[in-house]
Amino acid sequence: MTLVADKSILLVEDEALLAMFEKNQLEQGGYVVTHVTNGENAIQLIILEGKPFDLILMDIDLGRGLDGTQTATEILNHKEIPVVFLSSHTERDIVKKTETITSYGYVVKNSGFTVLDASIKMAFKLFEANELTKSKKEHLETVLQSIGDGVIATDSDGKVIRMNPIAEKLTGWAHDEAVGLTISDVFKIVNVKTRSLVENPVDIVLRTNSIVGLANHTVLLSKDGCEYQISDSGSPIKDLNGDTRGVVLVFRDITAEYNVQSQIAKQANMLNNVLDAVIGTDFNHKINYWNKAAEKIYIWKAEEVIGKSVLEVLKTDYLQLTSDQVIEKVNLEGSFIGEVIQFAKDGSIRNIEVNQVLLNDESDLPIGYIAVGRDISDRLNAMKQVRESEAKLTQIIESAMDAIISIDQSKRIILFNGAAEKMFGYQSTDIIGQGLDRLIPMDFRSQHDSHIDSFSKTGVSRRAMGALGQIRGLRANGEEFPIEASISQISVKGEKLYTVILRDVSVRNLSESKIQKLLHEKENILKEIHHRVKNNMSSIFTLLTLQARSQTETSIQTILYEAAGRVKSMIVLYDKLYHSETDNTVSLQDYFPAIFNEIVSIFPKNVELKMEILEEPIELSAKLLSSLGIILNELITNSMKHAFNDITNAEISLKIFREGKKLYLEYADNGVGIPDSISFEHSPGFGLQLIGMLVDQIEGKISIVRNPLSKFLLELSI
């Protein structure tokens, strides 16, 4: 269960008022919240300063600079942390943009704290689950790489798909060289006496669908010319339906064991240091040697078993042979190597790889038996996990919704998943081995071949979905249809293999056409909405103005005029938007003279206005102008309330000028001035506090000049 009291959240939100509301809600919900207004500050905190956060709540639109998805991508390149996107957008392309990032949720603004809280908690759970899955996968890979025996996995055709480092060392083949080759090319074994080839265990497993062991006196011929006497076992890899998908071959070098078996009796005192169980018996199977490893593996102490029959102490299942048959084999051939199941003192089961040989005296006359046993229970469990992992990979490919097709260098199909069968109308059994051009319209085949050839020469390992643009596919019934494709390539012993992932975009193309029509309708509706909103705000403005004029108390009248001024700034902006031909932008030269005159006219006091605005046309976004309109309203209201009490020739001036990429707004009046004790940080009223918040939101700077006239200077980057 996730405890929110211990969780810290970084809120990245450029809307000041909305950020205050969201931060308050989260803190009331028990979270520790830190707020920044832009992506650069988020990167500074997490990457450069190393501040610890449990989750990032990321707004997608962050104004100027990096947007939410760019910020999240940069952070995730340096740190694993869950990111939940918070946005007012519900458009599919915006949501889809976040899906390419390691996102743990997408919450629409104003969905309510319950939805936001549930999404955050779900993100914590998903993050914890992903970390656990990653840990288990790394553990599985470590087990496979650290096994002391050689391990080779093949597919159902007997071709190598994986080798561990021990297998590379014994066979002399590097992993990348061996993958794709048949097992007989990599794992060459002969009889040590006759030098004739021995049937490969993989071929036996595929033929019999059962576990097999290697015959005695078998030598592995390494690629580098070395020879190793080995023991091995082959086991089928089965999927969840019980069908054999390949083979796992486990083998080890037992050359040293063969060389020292005749010396075991003489060097018994040294055998306590080996990890394998070593048991010596006479011809009546009475135990005369039991080393420390045997004590550890079977839990029997040496003093408990010496003199007893090994057949009574250890219950042994030889899997394919009886105990008598094994003894006969040892007596005739000199040894037996294979896997057995044995029971320890407490009844627990041990999977043992045993090498049982005749023990000779100094005259080379047999005097008993020596059995060397290795506990391979962990190894078998590791192989089981490998088989399950391979089965899961196969299931993932088959359950993928996109068509997955692999081809060899001659462009013949070698993999055709279930989605490809549905998309093209072919069964995999019918299409495997066929040329890829059967799936491509005639007039596009040469172009498609050149695409693959040029991609092969780039050396790029993969190219993302849609990078090739839309191409055409050909179904079995002759129907052509549009598809998007991603392609990747790998090289196996000089031969390149290509895998393409295809997506049928027929429905999407139709949907996009409908969307374009709806967008056109939306533009018309939006203009109508602007008009209606303006009319409604005009009604509100009129009511506030009438109410102000009807008041006798100056303080109440001033409050109503302030509210009316804020509404008026919005009315002017909506009017300019309604008549604007651009997309959600308004000319600075059209907006500021209109709003300046309109706001001043609200107040009953006569004031002379002076405006000096640069002639160069500048288009600004409605969002920025809305904030600037409210700032200007607060400045005018402040002048009307405090500056002109005893002044008859009241005057207000507004100057807008530009220097390079900086835009400056200079506001001044000829009133009594602003006391030194008043600032944006220390203001008794709401007006200057609101100005300070809005300036931070638009990433500007504002300062107060008190002499010779009261003046505010606002600086913006454009």
Automatic annotation (TrEMBL):
InterPro entries: CheY-like_superfamily, HATPase_C_sf, HATPase_dom, His_kinase_dom, PAC, PAS, PAS-assoc_C, PAS-like_dom_sf. It holds the Pfam family HisKA_2. GO terms for biological process: phosphorelay signal transduction system; regulation of DNA-templated transcription. Residues 136-209, 263-317, 389-443 form the PAS domain. Residues 528-718 form the Histidine kinase domain. GO terms for molecular function: ATP binding; kinase activity. Keywords: ATP-binding, Kinase, Nucleotide-binding, Phosphoprotein, Transferase, Two-component regulatory system. SMART domains: PAC, PAS, REC. Residues 214-266, 330-388 form the PAC domain. The modification 4-aspartylphosphate is found at residue 59. Residues 8-124 form the Response regulatory domain. This is PAS domain S-box protein. It comes from Leptospira terpstrae serovar Hualin str. LT 11-33 = ATCC 700639.
